[in-house]
């Protein structure tokens, strides 16, 4: 099957790139340009016609990538044409007339590249991350993963485990033959070393995932304290509805921000108070859960706030910044329980002292995105399989010490399998769909 898709963004543009991959590329080239052959990887200006009609669609550059020396490993064509909807639709319509040609699914070009051994699964994921990167630090991380050091490390661990497994299976197959003490000692030391290296990687404060997904900040506090106003101010647009009516915000409202090149997801939550309204109670429950899962909480209060000691005490920790909004109303009469939290006094109405709050946020962010490691965990999928690998290595050690070699070998196989799933060295069809569906069409 030959697939095709627009690889550049949809809409009117000066240039559009239509990508085609599969065995029908040469036929499409001949039918649409009347050229039977082009110099590989050289942009050639050609007139592009409708199939079976002497009607010009556009004039543009065509690049021919013969397989297997192409991105997908198959024959590939790229049409670089003017980016009007009419031109794109006309080219798509003409290609569809060729038998065994269809529109590509999201990420299908990269999926074919993976299946043909052109990219590893980690590199495929990093390509998706690079395309979706919004900040410089996200771009740098995607490039670092694309370099292949993470993939190489996981493969090295897997190869070492396979070598250990071969020795264990030799002991099982030939029980009458005693393995040399040096090999038995090496089995124990090598498996322990791999386990400790993976555990060290897992103890990374989830820096890679924070960079990829964004640092989570929750704005929490009582009703009418100015949570929605703060979200709108930081976002520089009206993300949330602002009203003097208490309990306006019922759900969690999220927006993505770029703070000094660092990716941040900031969320407005329902005001915390005693309520008999079932919908508002659910919103308050969501707010408290959001605060629990956030990397940083901005707890916003105002001078007229009653004593929220019980609620506030649950948030008094190193991941909280306390803010006293509406300081223009006077901060002399706030309750002692609020005063001892040393809140940052601000006024969203008068736009006073907000720079101090932003500086405090930056201080909290500082260090959370810093890593000197070349090997990074960027997805929860990777973390889960590494944790499973460590778990099976621990079981292997216990059974190996008891000389229960049959069961020990099975734990070693499972540990090896989990590493293989990360890099795509085993049958991972069940996860390929979820990975490549996150791609844009045409990649």
Strand content: 15-25%
Q: How many strands appear in the DSSP assignment? A: 12
As for the number of domains, it is: 3
Can you write the helix and strand succession as a string?
Answer: EEHEEEHEHHHHHHEHEEHEHEHEHHHH
Structural class: alpha/beta
Q: For the residues shown, what is the average pLDDT? A: 82
Overall helicity: 40-55%
Tally of separate helices? 16
Largest sheet: 6 strands, mixed
Order of strands, main sheet, comes to: 3-4-5-2-1-6
Structural overview:
The chain has 443 residues and is α/β, with parallel strands linked by helices. It has 3 domains: 103 residues, Probable tRNA modification gtpase trme, domain 1 (Gyrase A, domain 2, 2-Layer Sandwich); 140 residues, Four Helix Bundle (Hemerythrin (Met), subunit A), CATH 1.20.120.430; 155 residues, P-loop containing nucleotide triphosphate hydrolases (Rossmann fold, 3-Layer(aba) Sandwich). Helices cover 45% and strands 17% of the residues. The longest helix has 25 residues.
Task: Give descriptors for this structure.
Rossmann fold, 17% strand, alpha/beta, six-stranded mixed β-sheet, 16 helices, single chain, Four Helix Bundle (Hemerythrin (Met), subunit A), 443 residues
Task: Report a brief summary of the structure.
This protein is an alpha/beta fold. It folds into three domains: 2-104, Probable tRNA modification gtpase trme, domain 1 (Gyrase A, domain 2); 126-204 and 376-436, tRNA modification GTPase MnmE domain 2 (Four Helix Bundle (Hemerythrin (Met), subunit A), Up-down Bundle); 211-365, Rossmann fold (3-Layer(aba) Sandwich), CATH 3.40.50. 45% of the residues lie in helices and 17% in strands.
């Amino acid at each position: 099957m030959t697939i095709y898709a627009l690889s550049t963004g949809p809409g009117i543009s000066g240039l559009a790139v239509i990508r085609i991959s599969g065995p029908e590329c040469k036929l499409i080239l001949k039918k649409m340009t009347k050229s039977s052959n082009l110099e590989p990887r050289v942009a050639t200006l050609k007139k592009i016609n409708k199939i079976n009609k002497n009607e010009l669609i556009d004039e543009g550059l065509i690049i021919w990538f013969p397989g297997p020396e192409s991105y997908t490993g198959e024959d590939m064509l790229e049409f670089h044409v003017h980016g009007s909807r009419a031109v794109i639709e006309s080219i798509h319509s003409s290609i569809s007339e060729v038998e065994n040609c269809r529109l590509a699914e999201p990420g299908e070009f990269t999926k074919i590249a993976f299946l043909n051994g052109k990219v590893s699964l980690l590199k495929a994921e990093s390509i998706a991350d690079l395309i979706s990167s919004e900040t410089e630090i996200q771009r740098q991380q995607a490039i670092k993963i694309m370099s292949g050091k993470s993939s190489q490390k996981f493969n090295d661990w897997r190869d070492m485990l396979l070598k250990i497994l071969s020795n264990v299976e030799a002991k099982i197959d030939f029980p009458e033959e005693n393995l040399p003490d040096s090999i038995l000692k090496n089995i124990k030391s090598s498996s322990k070393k791999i386990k400790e290296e993976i555990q060290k990687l897992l103890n990374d404060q989830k820096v890679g995932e924070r960079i990829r997904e964004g640092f989570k900040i929750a704005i929490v506090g009582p009703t009418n304290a100015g949570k929605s106003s703060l979200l709108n101010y930081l976002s520089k647009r009206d993300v949330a509805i602002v009203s003097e009516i208490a309990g306006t915000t019922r759900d969690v409202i999220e927006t993505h921000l770029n703070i000094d090149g660092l990716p941040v997801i900031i969320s407005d939550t329902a005001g915390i108070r005693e309520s008999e309204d079932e919908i508002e109670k659910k919103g308050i429950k969501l707010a408290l859960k959001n605060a629990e899962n956030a990397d940083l909480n901005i707890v916003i209060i105002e001078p007229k706030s009653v004593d929220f000691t019980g609620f506030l005490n649950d948030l008094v920790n190193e991941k909280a910044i306390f803010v006293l909004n509406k300081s223009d109303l006077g901060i002399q009469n706030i309750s002692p329980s609020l005063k001892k939290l040393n809140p940052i006094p601000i006024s969203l109405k008068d736009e006073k002292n907000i720079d101090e709050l932003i500086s405090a946020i930056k201080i909290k962010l500082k260090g959370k995105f810093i890593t000197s490691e070349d090997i990074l965990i960027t997805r929860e999928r990777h973390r889960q399989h590494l944790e499973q690998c460590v778990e099976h290595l621990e079981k292997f050690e216990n059974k190996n010490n008891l000389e229960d070699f049959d069961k020990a070998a099975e734990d070693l196989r499972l540990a090896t399998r989990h590493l293989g799933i990360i890099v795509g060295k085993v049958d991972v069809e069940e996860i390929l769909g979820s990975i490549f569906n996150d791609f844009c069409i045409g990649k």
